[in-house]
Amino acid sequence: MSAGSTRPGRYIPGKEIMDSVMFEIRHLTHAYETEDGQAYRALDDVSCRIRKGEFTAVIGTNGSGKSTLARHLNALLLPTEGDVLVEGMSVNDPENIWPIRQKVGMVFQNPDNQLVAAVVEEEVAFGPENIGVPREEILRRVETALEKVGMTQYRHHSPAMLSGGQKQRIAIAGVLAMKPDCIILDEPTAMLDPVGRREVMDTVHELNRKEGISVVLITHFMEEAVTADRVLVIHRGHLVMDGTPREVFSQPEKLKTIGLDVPVPADLAHLLHKKGLAVRADCMTDEELGDALCPFVSKI
Ligand SMILES: Nc1ncnc2c1ncn2[C@@H]1O[C@H](COP(=O)(O)OP(=O)(O)OP(=O)(O)O)[C@@H](O)[C@H]1O
Ligand SMILES: [Mg+2]
Q1: Is 123 domain-assigned?
Q2: The domain containing residue 218 runs over which residues?
Q3: Residue 1 pLDDT
Q4: 6 within domain boundaries
Q5: Nearest CA, atom 27, ligand 1
Q6: What is the number of the ligand 1 atom nearest to the C-alpha of 60?
Q7: What mean pLDDT is predicted for residues 151-174?
Q8: Domain count along the chain
Q9: How confident is the model over 205-261, as pLDDT tens digits?
Q10: Distance, CA 42 to ligand 1 centroid (Å)?
């Protein structure tokens, strides 16, 4: 449901467009106060729109402002200048803070820092309990959330005994129990092994695909960013690139100047193309690169 919903029949110019917008970021600037009392602009005049149901990846080097941006999306941080509208609700209006936090859940990097309960199902129930959801409804939400992240069989376990990937799935279930429209994940796989990373990415993609939950994924892993609908590149507090993964990763020189990695298939395809080989320059995955190289291999 949109916060901007109005009585049926009343025409509001641009309303249809705004109804499909999850986040409207308008000239967002955030300045932290440094130890010597100076203002440091971690975000500087960032504007963009993120649509409902979109899977957006945010990439950038260390300290570029990714987490600062993420924390504005559920009003954990407030703008120094500018505004963020979440489903039409401004983060600058104090009355919107709680509705926004319920609409937009957040999952952080370290699973151990965000799990508080002794038993998995208590952990998942924690959020709804805090906002006074009735007991019967909490039980239903816990069951559904655990099912959606594929962790039902662990409901009576201690979170401490789970793997990193499983802990992150419980953290995601905790967010799901709040019935969010969007999940923001700030490097959720950074501390996980490849199996845990896959578990979390599969879970998040399934929630996006099947439940229509909008996802904003901050990541240092380019192969994760490749799986998004859209990639935002932040550099020194500015939004410097915004496009589909193919659009962004087919510009390896630009990304490297910023200090970012490029997915290996994209880098190699671009290099071969530049050397004059008739290979499409915008391969994103190993499969695509394999297909692009096939005609050459068969000639050998
Ligand atoms: N509480 C704070 N006080 C002062 N400066 C801060 C604070 N939090 C972040 N910063 C600074 O703001 C800049 C952006 O930080 P932010 O955490 O958003 O970057 P990031 O892109 O998430 O980096 P990383 O990839 O390391 O997580 C950095 O230079 C950081 O040192
Ligand atoms: Mg960060």
Answers
A1: yes
A2: 54-78+91-245
A3: 37
A4: no
A5: 62
A6: 21
A7: 95
A8: 1
A9: 999 999 999 999 999 999 999 999 999 999 999 999 999 999 999 999 999 999 998
A10: 7
